[in-house]
Amino acid sequence: MFERELAATAAAMVAPGKGILAIDESSGTIKKRFDLIGVESTVETRRAYRDLLISGDGLAQFISGMILYDETIKQATKAGTPFPDAMKKAGILAGIKVDTGAKALAGAAGEQVTEGLDGLRERLAEYKKLGATFAKWRAVITIGTDMPSQYCIEANVHALARYAALCQEAGIVPIVEPEVLMDGSHTLERCFEVTEKTQHALFDELHRQRVRFEHLVLKPSMVISGKDCPQQASVQQVADATVQCLKRTVPAAVPGIVFLSGGQSDELATAHLNTMNAGKAALPWPLSFSYGRALQAPALKAWKGQPGSVPAAQKALYHRAKMNSAACFGRYKAEMEKDALAA
After folding, report:
1. CB 259 within 8 A of CB 222
2. Which domain holds residue 80?
3. Overall number of domains in the chain
4. 258 three-state secondary structure
5. CATH number at residue 215
6. Catalytic residue selected from 25, 111, 177, 179
7. Rounded to 5 degrees, what are φ and ψ at 219?
8. Which single residue of 21, 47, 51, 161 has CA 20 to 30 Å from 70?
9. What is the pLDDT of residues 195-229, one digit of tens each?
């Protein structure tokens, strides 16, 4: 019923040189970020911050869509325009986070499963009326001693597939996000092993639950050394391992891949994406970005809750979006950061 609409939305989400900005932090997460800059987290401060992100001039050159939170999709700009309407006018798609977070997985100490399937069909119908054209669900996979278990992987991909099927039924493109966490001391090789196993399981389950690969977007983590690993992989090693893993696991029918940053620094996340695109042979899908903190951090630091700092914050966001757009074509260079700073 929605096949043409879904295909058009998915294609727009991964248009050449464009990526997705994630501004779907829960109230608890954004409070932590506001605490770092000395700003109280209230309904109004959260609205004002999301307003500056959404209303920045020229972002549509580099940003195809933004993932919103339940509170945010129901808010409006300072001028009173609902956020989804303001985004549509600017040429940016509105997305919505629909999971309710990762919770402890019963019978699996230290592991988690993402919840939020109860009432999802009805919530998707509401979000579509509010203007959402795509959605996001994040699964969390932890690497550790005897982790992840096959039980944990299967529980998470089963939920992802059920979510994706409900999205497509509602005419909403699902972003499926199986995040293998950077937390830990694991090596690049161990991350590759876990990521490959998770993504194989994911696409097997998506197929079982009749999800059309042509009408979804994959948001994976990169294959990267754990934060506490004494031997950190190089940018080239991360790029090579990530592309190899994707080639082994992701069907060619998938319209595109948008990476999460997963705790990487702003510039490192850009460099990794750039190296994948600079050195790649022909791949069946474009490689782009769906960053949250790695796009927002400079803007948040520039803003500091001050209305007079909004232009500076928007300029910082524009710059990071532009850098990542260049990385989608393999054209990013570290000197571009310095040039922008000098300007």
Report:
1. yes
2. 3-342
3. 1
4. strand
5. 3.20.20.70
6. 177
7. -120, 85
8. 161
9. 999 999 999 999 999 999 999 999 999 999 999 99
